[in-house]
Amino acid sequence: MKASGFCFEVTARDGAARSGRLATPHGVVETPAFMCVATYGAVRGVSMPVLEGLGAQILLANTYHLHERPGEDTIAGLGGLHGFSGFGGPWLTDSGGYQVTSLADRMQLDEDGITFSSPLDGTRRSLTPESAIAIQEKLGADIAMVLDVCHRPRPDAKESESRRMREAMEQTLRWARRSAAARSRPDQAVFGIVQGGLSAELRRTSAAGTVDVGFDGYAHGGLGLGEPRSQRGELIEAAQAALPEERPRYLMGLGHPIDLVDAVAAGVDLFDCVVPTRNGRHGVLFTSRGRLQAKSARFRDDPRPPDPDCDCATCSRVSRGYLRHLLSIGESLGAQLASVHNLRFTLRLLERARAAIAAGTFAALRREVAALEDARV
Amino acid sequence: MKASGFCFEVTARDGAARSGRLATPHGVVETPAFMCVATYGAVRGVSMPVLEGLGAQILLANTYHLHERPGEDTIAGLGGLHGFSGFGGPWLTDSGGYQVTSLADRMQLDEDGITFSSPLDGTRRSLTPESAIAIQEKLGADIAMVLDVCHRPRPDAKESESRRMREAMEQTLRWARRSAAARSRPDQAVFGIVQGGLSAELRRTSAAGTVDVGFDGYAHGGLGLGEPRSQRGELIEAAQAALPEERPRYLMGLGHPIDLVDAVAAGVDLFDCVVPTRNGRHGVLFTSRGRLQAKSARFRDDPRPPDPDCDCATCSRVSRGYLRHLLSIGESLGAQLASVHNLRFTLRLLERARAAIAAGTFAALRREVAALEDARV
């Protein structure tokens, strides 16, 4: 099955990096693109009109969280994610596998699916490849993700590591087949997920197997869990060699500037991450001059904007002194203003990446971001 | 001393109700007007561009809170309240007397002023009529308030009540004289505060004495502390009889719809209250059909806007179902959207009051609001 209303075309290349256009039933996404995380259907503290003003093209919500509250039937009744949230652009829903497998001892995994106690009320719940697709069809996402098994490397159990990594990867593949068979909505794209832990060979096998099943796009799952930057690059490249050029590729859950440009350089098209909003709430701002710890007493009397080179609503109107004050007293507007800046910074970085790829200057942008990695304002 | 750059003119009357224009160095306020409360220089969770879009004409901050954090020197260095906050319209600062006298056992009051332990770090601090003016001059408010003594009636000490009420009123008057003498900023208006507890006679005496000192405007303090609606009306009218027609009158701290129209009917021009934002955070919305408990499960699947007759950003884009979801999960966007609605509702009520006074139909508006007082959506 292939979703209708979807079309991905690569419009420019610069080395392995590529820019393109992903058409969905709810609008076009210029890639490489960052998806702002709206786990429960809302980006924390940031309203939809503000998000649109920041240039957010596509949002990400979580199947598992929305299944728990308010439930997919309620959302379907309110017009799906688009009508429910008021954001009419494209939505992608993560399947919830990553979140559910984080529940550790509350979670039981078998061939059929995942059973777990709800952290909310202890109720036993389950998620299967089929139910994850069914929920996402009700949510009305433009792009759904298959249910996967994310194996987290445990440093204290080295001998069994490679066996566990392989098992999780194979389980993910078997579930990918069931997910593909469960699809019933012709207007919803579904992406497969590559697993394989820290083994390049397993990732290549996983990618090839997932492509055999056939999806509208492919994601790298289970990365950003502490592996070194260079190793991550190798793992992405290993998988990517087995992925078709004409399908979008999505790196799940990473969003630091350096992670984004590294992956764009390897040919990744889509990203999502809570880092811009989570860092914002904690007063850590990405800027064109490096990281800024906005709560620092150094900024108490500083009239300059957080990032003088930024065009966001925060930087065009708010001083470091005012932002520090709001964050220091725990006023929620501080978290909101910092989140707005970090989201705009991230979205603008991807805008710049798209322009740089078109101009053949992406390597320079990547060097610029890498040079800022350890800089502090 | 009379502040320059200020001018108040009554432009229409309807019974005792009046509408007018209060010109300040940072812009004109159409009265009767509601001042959104930005205690620490920010309305909780609502950004300045959004506030401006709601029609906020003037904001209120608190001297005592800003003196504690970040301090008046920091704010002065960042361009006063206007530059610091990014809201360039008029600001009024409350003196902090009400807040400091709420500290009860942490607070000591004598002829000189109020000494108290900071709730933040236990440091001994003091506020005198002179220091309250000096701090407000540094904050750069367009309108400053004198330091007053707000006596809270104690039902368990009836015999001494009238003595205490009189003492607080007389203390406030003596401090009013010192406040007036302490003024040094020609571009800052200062309002005196009428006290007198629940005695109409004391309130009349207080008003007459405060007018003798001479201020740019006059406020009713110490109301909204549990007295019945009818008694409050009598107390306001008693004081108002001694207040000059050509000066603005401000009822401090009340903001329920019924309180606003009652006081407008008595000729009050200015209001402030945390009720719109506090209620919003708790999911209680004022609407044109009555109070709406937005967290109620009844609204889970309700696609209608919170208030179908409202023109705010929330009601034009958000369903009851979505708002209920956000408030239920404790997502801060829910509090923000509800606060935005309640602020707009309140600001619009005052807009309607101004139009009704000009049209001679204010009594009908007051009846409409009174009829809604016990209505629930």
- As laid out across the biggest beta sheet of chain A, the strand order is 4-5-6-10-11-12-13-14
CATH architecture of the largest domain in chain A, please? Answer: Alpha-Beta Barrel
| N-to-C CA distance of chain A | 50 Å
What is the CATH level 1 assignment of the largest domain in chain A? Alpha Beta
Radius of gyration of chain A: 20 Å
- Class of secondary structure makeup of chain A: alpha/beta
Kindly state the number of beta strands of chain A: 16
Task: Give the percentage of residues in beta strands of chain A.
Answer: 15-25%
**Oligomeric state of the chains present here:** homodimer
Overall residue-averaged pLDDT value of chain A: 95
Poorly predicted regions of chain A: none
**Largest chain-chain contact?**
A-B, 41 and 41 residues
Helix content of chain A: 40-55%
Question: Any idea of the CATH topology of the largest domain in chain A?
Answer: TIM Barrel
Spatial shape of chain A: globular
